[in-house]
Specification:
single chain, alpha+beta, eight-stranded mixed beta barrel, 28 helices, 44% helix, flat
C-alpha cells in the first residue's frame, strides 16, 4: 500500500472515531453512513435502534428505504441538507415512525450525518384526531343535521350539503345570504320572532341558542327547522366574527304534534258506570262460559254460543288482536296470572276498552283453563286522556300568562321601535349604576347622543325611513356595549343615552364617541334611497366618589348642546364654563320672552338713496332691543338665542307693524319715504297664518318690501313658502334678496322667486373702488339684474368714491354708513329735513 493512501485511511478512521465520541452527546439516535446506508459511526441510542443491522436502510419498510436512498442522492448531488423525512420501521405492535435530518459529513463527500427523532406518538395523536373528525362528520350526516357557518371578516357563508338538501337547493347553487332575502323565505308569522332570535343568538344570549321556525322549500311548501347556533368568535369590540350552527328538519315531528293536538281537542269526556263480567275458558275442550255480565258487557244475546276462537276473538280490535293472543298464549303456557287492556268492536260498531284480570290454571281433570273478569274502562281511559289534556292546557295557559307578564314588563321598560330600554328604565337604572360604580370605586360616564339631520330624513322620505334610521342607531349602540356594566337607552325622538363605568380616561371615551359617530354616519338603504344622518354626542364624567347620576345626565345634555352648536357631527366633553354659558343663554332666552311681552323691540332705520340723484327711495327697518338694564342691544347680541327658542318670526311681525306705523308718521309729516323694507326669516316665510296677519295691516301697495336672505332654502316642493310668496305679491309687497353674492342662490332660484331687487353683499362692495376684479364682479351682478329686470341695491357704501363707482357701474340704489347710519325713529325727522347726506 502506498504511504500516502495509508495516511489518508488513518485520518478517516481517526475522524470516525472522533465522530463517535461527538455523537455520544446527542440524546436521540445519530449515525454516520455512506451512500449505501452502511453505518460508519453511531451513538448508543442508534446502536440500540439498529439491533445488529449493518445498513440503516434495512430497518425501514421498502418505500421508506427508497425515500432514504433518494434523499442521499439529492444531498450528495447538491450538498444541501434534507429535513423532515418521515421513515417507518415495521413492528409487530405497530409501525415506529422516525423524523430524519440528513446532512453531508464535513470534509468527506461520501459520508453523511443523520439524526433520527421518534414521532410515533405525534403520528398516533394525529391519526386519532383524524378518526375523531371522521366520526363527528359521520354523526352529523347520520343525524341529518345541516351545518352552517358565517365568517364576518370574509363576509362568507358555508352551508353543508344536507343543509342545502333540506331546502331543495343544489350543491353548486348560489345561496342568497342577504338578511332581507333570507327573511323573505321565512313564514310571515315567524319573521319578526326569527329576526329577534337571530339577533339575540348572535349577541350570545344562551336563552336563544335553540329556536324553530318555518322556511319555504324550493318547491313552495314550508318546512319546520330547528336551528341551533352560537357565536364562537368575536372581534375585540364585541361584534360577531364567527357564528356556527346546525339546522334539523323537524317537519314530521311538528306534524305529529299538530295531529295529536287536533285529536286532543276532539276528545269528549265520557264516564260510565263500570260493568264487570266473569268468564271461565277450557282450552282443551275449546269452550268458554260467560255470565250475564259478560254478555251485557259485549252487547251479545244471552243465547248465543261462545267458543274459544269464535265470538270474543272476532270482536277484538284488529290492531290489538295479535298482541292479545301472544299475551294469552305466553301466560297460559307458564300458568302466570296477568292483567291486560285491549279494545273490542261491538256489534253496533262501537269500540270499547276492556280491562281484564286473568288466572290460568290446570283443573283436577288436567285441563288447561283460565278464569277471569272483564270490565269496561272506556270511560276511565277517555277521562284519563281528557285530564291529561286539561293538565297540559292548564300548564300551557300558565306559561302563556307568565310569558304575557314578562312581555308586558318588557314593553313597559323598552322602546317599541328599537327594543332598547326607554326613559323609564333609564330612570330606574341611574341610581343602581351610580351605586355600583361607587361601590367598586369607579367613575360613571354618560354619552348623550342626538342624530343629526334626522328631521330632514323624516320630512323628505317619511317616518318609515326615520324608523329605519332609529333602528340602525340602536343596533350601532347595542353593538358598542362592552360588558354588563354598560347601559343604552332611547330617551325619546332621535336621542339616546349610553352609560358606561369608567376610570376617568377621556381618551378612551373620545375613541368610543368617534367610533359611534363613524358608524352612525354610515348610509342606511331604505326603499332604494341612501339615508344618511350623522350624530352629535355630549359626554360627561363623574369620577369615583358620590355620583349624582341625574346631574351627570344634565351635564351630558349641556355638552350635547355645545356639540350641535359647534357644527354637529362631533362630540364635546362637559366643562363647568359651558354650564355657565348655558345658564347665561337660558337667562337671555327668558329675557327675550319677557321683552316680547313688554314690547321692548324697536326699529332703527337706515335710509336707501337713488344712485343718480341721491334722493331717499326707501328705508330698511333694523331690529334693536331696548333692554331695561343693558341699554340698546344690536341683533348680534340676542338674535342667535331668539332663533333657538323660535321667536324670530314674532320679532319680524312686530317690526313690520311698527315700520308700517312709522311710514304713516313720515307721510303725515310731509316727508317722502317711498317704501320701507323689513327682514323676513325662514320660519315666518313658512308660517301658514302669514296671509291672515298681513291682511290685518293697512299699507299702500308698493310701500312695503320684504328682504329674504339668500341662504333661505326655497325648494320647488315647498308649497307653503310658494303660496305665501304668491300672496305677498298680490298684496303689492316687494321682494328683495338680501346678501346676494355669498354663494347660495342660483339663477334658477332667482327666476323661480322673481324678486324686485337684489342687495349686493357689503363684502363685495368694500373693495370696489380699488380692485378691478371686484368692479367686474359687481358689474356682472348688475348685468344679471338688468337682464332679469331686477333693481340692484348696494350695501356697505362708506365713501364718496363708493357712490361714484357704483353709480357709474349702473347700480340703482345705495345704502351704507357713508350716506346714513341706522337711527331711531325720532332722529329720522331732523335727518330727512336737513338732507345732510348730499354734502358728504
Amino acid at each position: 500500500m502506498p504511504k500516502a493512501e495509508g495516511s489518508c485511511r488513518k485520518k478517516d478512521e481517526w475522524r470516525l472515531a472522533k465522530s463517535a465520541d461527538l455523537l455520544g452527546v446527542i440524546p436521540s439516535p445519530a449515525l454516520v453512513i455512506d451512500t449505501r446506508t452502511s453505518v460508519k459511526a453511531a451513538n448508543a441510542a442508534a446502536f440500540a435502534l439498529l439491533k445488529g443491522c449493518e445498513r440503516l436502510s434495512d430497518l425501514f419498510t421498502p418505500p421508506c428505504a427508497a425515500q432514504l436512498a433518494a434523499a442521499l442522492l439529492a444531498t450528495s448531488a447538491t450538498g444541501v441538507a434534507q429535513h423532515g423525512l418521515e421513515l417507518a420501521i415495521a413492528s409487530g405492535s405497530g409501525d415506529i415512525w422516525l423524523m430524519a435530518a440528513l446532512a453531508p459529513y464535513p470534509q468527506n463527500g461520501d459520508l453523511f450525518l443523520i439524526t433520527l427523532t421518534d414521532v410515533s406518538a405525534l403520528k398516533n395523536r394525529l391519526a386519532v384526531s383524524e378518526a375523531a373528525e371522521r366520526r363527528w362528520h359521520s354523526a352529523l350526516v347520520g343525524s341529518f343535521s345541516g351545518v352552517w357557518e358565517y365568517r364576518a371578516d370574509l363576509d362568507q357563508w358555508y352551508c353543508s350539503d344536507i343543509w342545502r338538501q333540506m331546502r331543495g337547493i343544489g350543491p353548486d347553487e348560489p345561496i342568497q345570504t342577504e338578511t332581507d332575502a333570507w327573511l323573505e323565505r321565512i313564514h310571515p308569522e315567524d319573521r319578526e320572532r326569527v329576526a329577534h332570535y337571530v339577533e339575540r343568538q348572535t349577541a350570545g344570549d344562551p336563552d336563544y341558542m335553540i329556536f324553530d321556525y318555518r322556511e319555504r322549500h324550493r318547491d313552495g311548501h314550508y318546512l319546520w327547522i330547528e336551528c341551533r347556533g352560537s357565536c364562537v368568535e368575536r372581534y375585540p369590540d364585541g361584534r360577531p366574527l364567527r357564528i356556527i350552527g346546525t339546522d334539523i328538519d323537524i317537519t314530521a315531528r311538528k306534524q305529529t304534534e299538530e295531529r295529536l293536538t287536533h285529536l286532543s281537542r276532539r276528545l269528549k269526556v265520557a264516564l260510565e258506570v263500570s260493568r264487570v263480567g266473569v268468564f271461565e275458558a277450557d282450552f282443551d275442550l275449546g269452550t268458554s262460559d260467560w255470565d250475564d255480565g259478560m254478555f251485557a258487557l259485549y252487547g251479545v244475546d244471552r243465547n248465543e254460543e261462545v267458543k274459544i276462537g269464535g265470538l270474543w276473538e272476532s270482536m277484538l280490535h284488529p290492531d290489538d288482536r295479535g298482541r292479545v293472543f301472544d299475551e294469552v298464549e305466553r301466560h297460559v303456557a307458564n300458568l302466570l296470572p296477568f292483567s291486560d287492556e285491549y279494545r273490542v268492536i261491538l256489534r253496533d260498531g262501537s269500540t270499547h276498552y276492556i280491562r281484564s284480570r286473568t288466572l290460568p290454571f290446570i283443573d283436577s281433570d288436567g285441563h288447561r283453563k283460565m278464569i277471569g273478569a272483564n270490565w269496561d274502562v272506556t270511560g276511565d281511559v277517555v277521562l284519563h286522556r281528557e285530564l291529561e289534556r286539561a293538565k297540559t292546557l292548564a300548564e300551557a295557559r300558565n306559561a302563556e300568562l307568565e310569558a304575557a307578564k314578562a312581555r308586558i314588563e318588557h314593553i313597559a321598560l323598552h322602546d317599541y321601535l328599537t327594543d332598547l330600554p326607554n326613559r323609564r328604565y333609564l330612570d330606574q337604572m341611574l341610581d343602581r349604576l351610580a351605586a355600583d360604580c361607587d361601590e367598586r370605586g369607579q367613575g360613571l360616564a354618560a354619552l348623550h347622543i342626538d342624530l343629526d339631520r334626522f328631521k330632514q330624513v323624516n320630512d323628505t322620505l317619511g317616518h318609515n325611513a326615520g324608523d329605519q334610521m332609529l333602528r340602525h342607531a340602536a343596533r350601532v349602540l347595542r353593538d358598542a356595549v362592552r360588558h354588563d356594566g354598560d347601559f343604552v337607552a332611547r330617551i325619546g325622538g332621535d336621542e339616546f343615552v349610553f352609560l358606561a363605568p369608567c376610570d376617568g380616561n377621556e381618551d378612551e371615551l373620545a375613541a368610543m364617541a368617534e367610533r359611534l359617530i363613524a358608524e352612525l354616519r354610515r348610509p342606511v338603504i331604505f326603499e332604494g334611497h341612501e339615508c344618511r344622518a350623522g350624530a352629535s354626542i355630549g359626554i360627561a364624567i363623574e369620577r369615583s366618589g358620590r355620583i349624582d347620576a341625574r346631574q351627570l345626565l344634565l351635564n351630558a345634555d349641556i355638552a350635547l348642546y355645545h356639540a350641535k352648536n359647534a357644527g354637529r357631527n362631533r362630540y364635546e366633553f362637559f366643562c363647568r364654563d359651558r354650564r355657565h354659558q348655558m345658564v347665561t343663554a337660558h337667562r337671555l332666552a327668558d329675557d327675550l320672552m319677557r321683552a316680547l311681552e313688554n314690547d321692548e323691540f324697536v326699529p332703527h332705520y337706515q335710509f336707501q338713496f337713488c344712485a343718480r340723484s341721491l334722493d331717499v327711495v326707501g328705508a330698511e327697518a333694523l331690529v334693536r332691543w331696548q333692554h331695561p338694564g343693558r341699554g340698546l342691544l344690536a341683533p348680534a347680541e340676542f338674535l342667535a338665542v331668539a332663533e333657538e327658542i323660535g321667536i324670530v318670526a314674532q320679532i319680524d311681525g312686530l317690526l313690520l307693524e311698527k315700520a308700517v306705523a312709522d311710514a304713516a308718521r313720515w307721510r303725515a309729516e310731509g316727508l317722502h319715504v317711498p317704501k320701507v323694507s323689513v327682514n323676513v326669516s325662514t320660519r315666518r316665510l313658512h308660517d301658514p297664518h302669514l296671509t291672515q296677519k298681513l291682511a290685518a295691516l293697512a299699507f299702500e301697495p308698493g310701500s312695503v318690501s320684504f328682504e329674504l336672505l339668500e341662504s333661505i332654502f326655497l325648494d320647488e316642493s315647498d308649497e307653503q313658502a310658494r303660496a305665501n310668496l304668491a300672496h305677498i305679491r298680490k298684496l303689492g309687497i316687494g321682494i328683495e334678496i338680501d346678501d346676494f353674492g355669498t354663494g347660495h342662490a342660483s339663477i334658477v332660484s332667482l327666476l323661480r322667486i322673481g324678486p324686485d331687487s337684489l342687495k349686493i353683499d357689503r363684502e363685495l362692495v368694500r373693495d370696489v373702488t380699488r380692485s378691478p376684479e371686484q368692479r367686474r364682479l359687481v358689474g356682472s351682478i348688475i348685468d344679471i339684474g338688468r337682464s332679469l329686470n331686477v333693481k340692484i341695491i348696494a350695501e356697505g357704501v362708506e365713501t364718496r368714491d363708493h357712490v361714484r363707482v357704483l353709480a357709474k357701474l349702473g347700480c340703482d340704489v345705495l345704502q351704507g354708513y357713508g350716506l346714513a347710519k341706522p337711527m331711531g325713529m325720532e332722529d329720522t325727522f331732523a335727518f330727512l329735513r336737513a338732507q345732510s347726506w348730499r354734502a358728504t
